Amino acid sequence: MDISSGISRLGRDSTLEYALSNLTLEEEVGVERKQKEEEGKREEVIQQDYSREGSIAYSDGPSGGIWRVMGLGPNKVVSASYDKTAKLLSLRESLDGIDFSDIRILSDHRREVLSLAKLTNEIFVTGSADGSLCLRNSTDGALISSLRDRYVTGFYSMAVLDENTVATGSCHRPKRHRGSWDHVIKIWDVSRRRFLFSLKGHSGGISELVNLGNNMIASSSGDSTVRVWSTESRETVSIFKGHEDYIYGLANFGESHVVTASKDRTVRIIDVSTNQQVGK
């Protein structure tokens, strides 16, 4: 074992690196073993914290945070989680209020489940960091069909355009691991498992997508902008630049308006027909 490389790997800061530089090889290995034991204890605590309620509705494991949730009807909810699963939850009334029953764990994805969309009353879609979209039966979550895009790092956001078509927010890997990453909106005919076209313009991650109707969609991004697109001309119609940091949330807010939520600690209302802020 090369001591200098071991020190560099173990050193979490300059103080620890300086201390390790005077250790023998045996002492260094001992420090490394102790660090691994401490990391194991921290991971065990995190696992206990996630499952402390004892409910299967919770997502287990140190990376099991629930990323999204969506209603499927008056008595059903679906959640998307970092533990690579989606969960279909049926609601029931109990003495303590509303509780979950008949919970179905959907484990067809190989990586984190990041996006959800309700295609019809009978079908919903899950999108994952493994680059796959899964169409599912809303009754029991059973897999109907799936498609995979090997060029993206995952489907981070999704919006339904009609009963056959969805828009997804993705990030393209650079060819041969060279160049910049492309943040792209892709339009899919999921009924035929066919890619239709893409919309490019954002320079940051695409956090949310909203169907505005009349062949128009809106997108929010880590580049601090909201873009309105025409799916007919396949071009950007307008760009709102009022935010100063990453935009995390985007939602419809009445006719011709959207509301945004940003890391700059502001919520803004935008009239997409004029590209003007009308509330903050």
Key descriptive features of the protein:
single chain, 280 residues, mainly beta, 4-stranded antiparallel beta sheet, 3 helices, 20 strands, globular, disordered N terminus
Report what the structure shows.
The chain has 280 residues and is mostly beta strands. It is built from three helices and 20 strands. A four-stranded antiparallel β-sheet has the order 1-2-3-4, with no helix packed on it. Strands 5-6-7-8 form a four-stranded antiparallel β-sheet, with no helix packed on it. The protein has a four-stranded antiparallel β-sheet with strand order 9-10-11-12, with no helix packed on it. The longest helix is centred in the first third of the chain and has 26 residues, at 25-50. Residues 1-25 and 41-58 have low confidence and may be disordered.
